[in-house]
Structure to design on (668 residues):
């Protein structure tokens, strides 16, 4: 009898991606493939293109893909609007979540969740059904329901904002979640809550990209792959030991690498 | 005939039924039939739109208003100006009764005699046009008064004029919604007067809602006495030409005034608000926020003036103008001003003009909301601050839904 071997599906495939903003080329040939169930970490110096890559995947209108491909579940997404990408299953956790005064967090989460559910051909939730769902998800990030009645991220502490991002991730159940420096500005306790939330949401059908500078997030969530980015491209890929190596040796070697190549 | 011609030509156009108030107003207007466009409060007025307002045929006839978004809710007193119904309501804790015709005439006469055509042209025009049938004067006293809804309306192809006078007695708390409805291709002139006695609170909402090519000139005159509180929420939209002149006088200081207003323009519309707040005693308080939102090729104007004379020490006044431009062709003029003589005061004013925040829009789109949904949510938040201040129930007037539908 054949043993049951888990077959991994490619979820996100980025090939030879070049992108620019205001005539400045920022991504210079990024290649990466994320399969279902995998957690990838992207590390690198400030300004190497990590955050730009995440925004481009999410469809930020300020950036232009000049060549290359981005595929989600085998389908090209470069021409899709940001909302179409989100509805298809791309989630970007912001490094600096935006405050939107006057817009109710609960209403925003409900509209967003229903947009995703509509794409998945699931029934949309009315206010009462949604409240039941969101209360269940609040537990994942240990948030109080009082957050829901406030304006989006307004007056939230740094940690609360990040937890709100993970709450959104839990509600939207994305195929690929890109978490851009979700660990920045968090104290140890908040980091543990956020990391625990991410681990609870992670599953064998989805993939996660963690963009981070620090080993401490990767101590909580062990990545399957670690990529080092420099000068707009991925220059080295390894397993979780690569992050430890970076923690120890820093990024000076990347300068040499870029010079040589 | 154009109203200006009626004003400037001989007495043969004036009927025998013309009241004394109309005659005095006419005499004043004849000295200055058209507002001087060098005057600050008329400088930016679109001349062709203003002339169009004056070109409508005038009528004093009553027409049943077509009220949008109205659902029948109990426990509200509703009055339509010009309907000619007697009003006298009395309960254990409160009373609303009509002022006698003589009281109204005396009140208006006093006001008109002091008026000049530079600052009060709109009021004078109103009083020249309005006959006794279209004036309502009310005396309100007591507490636990059910909300009052007063409707002023104009009829298709006509210019209508209405006057409202309300005296609020001491120790009274009342909520009044004034709904100004402009029929399509019509003009409406309204002058309102509110006298708020000591220790009284007036929660006042003014909703000016027009239809295609509707026009309005709306003046509001408020006198506040010691320890009174006046809360005004106003909303103006869907008028081709809209002009709102606010004059508030804290006659002895020691009173509180809170104002939140929003004006929304689109297509080629022009809506303007002129606010003149005067403190004539110490310890006065003002918190004013005027918002405007201009789309397409429309023009939105706000000019505010806070006057703090020597006697008004310890005044605490703030006037802010926040504006949102939704199109590269739209225009917003805003000018909050202070005129301070007193030396021990805390006064601030400011203005901002911005566009919809792109970062906010992208954040929402990155969660699956379409550009339209994201913009709607942003606009909802922009409107909400003012709408929640209006003393109007959502069940009766779902203004947010009405505004978002109109965008």
């Amino acid at each position: 009898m054949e043993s049951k071997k888990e077959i991994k599906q490619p979820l996100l495939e980025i090939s030879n991606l070049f992108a620019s903003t205001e005539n400045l080329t920022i991504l210079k040939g990024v290649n990466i493939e994320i399969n279902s169930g995998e957690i990838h970490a992207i590390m690198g110096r400030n300004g190497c293109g990590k955050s730009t890559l995440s925004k481009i995947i999410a469809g930020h209108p300020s950036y232009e893909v000049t060549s290359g491909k981005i595929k989600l579940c085998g389908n090209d997404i470069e021409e899709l609007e940001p909302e179409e990408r989100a509805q298809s299953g791309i989630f970007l956790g912001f490094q600096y979540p935006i405050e939107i005064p006057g817009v109710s967090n609960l209403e925003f989460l409900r509209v967003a969740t229903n947009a995703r559910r509509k794409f998945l051909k699931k029934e949309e939730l009315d206010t009462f059904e949604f409240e039941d769902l969101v209360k269940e998800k609040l537990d994942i990030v240990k948030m109080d329901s009082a957050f829901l009645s406030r304006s989006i991220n307004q007056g939230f502490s740094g940690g609360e904002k990040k937890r709100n991002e993970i709450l959104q991730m839990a509600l939207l159940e994305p195929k690929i979640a890109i978490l851009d420096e979700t660990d920045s500005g968090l104290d140890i306790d908040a980091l543990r809550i956020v990391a625990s939330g991410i681990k609870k949401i992670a599953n064998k059908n989805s993939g996660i990209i963690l963009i981070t500078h620090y080993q401490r997030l990767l101590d909580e969530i062990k990545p399957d792959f670690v990529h080092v980015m420099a000068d707009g491209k991925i220059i080295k890929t390894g397993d979780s030991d690569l992050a430890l190596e970076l923690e120890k040796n820093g990024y000076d070697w990347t300068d040499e690498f870029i010079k040589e190549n | 005939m154009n109203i200006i011609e009626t004003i400037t030509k001989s007495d043969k156009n004036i009927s025998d039924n013309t009241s004394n108030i109309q005659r005095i107003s006419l005499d004043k207007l004849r000295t200055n039939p058209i507002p001087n466009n060098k005057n600050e409060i008329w400088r930016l007025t679109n001349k062709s739109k203003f002339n169009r307002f004056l070109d409508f045929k005038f009528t004093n006839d009553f027409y049943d208003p077509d009220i949008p978004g109205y659902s029948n809710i109990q426990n509200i007193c509703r009055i339509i100006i010009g309907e000619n119904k007697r009003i006298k309501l009395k309960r254990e804790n409160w009373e609303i009764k009509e002022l006698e015709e003589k009281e109204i005439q005396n009140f208006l006469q006093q006001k008109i005699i002091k008026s000049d055509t530079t600052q009060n042209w709109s009021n004078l025009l109103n009083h020249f046009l309005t006959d006794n049938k279209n004036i309502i004067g009310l005396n309100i006293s007591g507490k636990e008064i059910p909300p009052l809804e007063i409707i002023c309306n104009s009829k298709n192809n006509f210019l209508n004029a209405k006057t409202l006078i309300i005296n609020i007695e001491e120790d009274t708390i009342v909520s009044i919604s004034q709904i100004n409805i402009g029929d399509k291709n019509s003009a409406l002139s309204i002058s309102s007067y509110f006298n708020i006695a000591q220790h009284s609170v007036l929660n006042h909402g003014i909703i000016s809602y027009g239809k295609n090519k509707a026009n309005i000139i709306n003046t509001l005159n408020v006198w506040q006495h010691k320890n009174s509180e006046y809360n005004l929420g106003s909303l103006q939209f869907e008028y081709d030409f809209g002009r709102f002149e606010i004059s508030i006088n804290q006659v002895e200081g020691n009173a509180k005034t809170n104002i939140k207003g929003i004006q929304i323009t689109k297509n080629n519309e022009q809506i303007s608000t002129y606010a003149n707040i005067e403190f004539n005693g110490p310890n006065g308080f003002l918190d004013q926020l005027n918002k405007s939102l201009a789309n397409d090729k429309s023009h939105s104007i706000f000019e505010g003036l806070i006057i703090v004379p020597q006697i008004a020490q310890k005044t605490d006044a703030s006037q802010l103008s926040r504006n949102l431009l939704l199109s590269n062709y739209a225009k917003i003029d805003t000018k909050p001003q202070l005129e301070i003589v007193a030396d021990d005061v805390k006064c601030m004013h400011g203005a901002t003009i911005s566009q919809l925040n792109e970062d906010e829009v992208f954040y929402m789109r990155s969660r699956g909301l379409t550009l339209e949904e994201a913009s709607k949510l942003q606009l909802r938040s922009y409107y909400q601050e003012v709408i929640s201040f209006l003393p109007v129930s959502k069940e009766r007037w779902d203004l947010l839904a009405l505004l978002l539908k109109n965008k």
Notes: The radius of gyration of chain B is 21 Å.
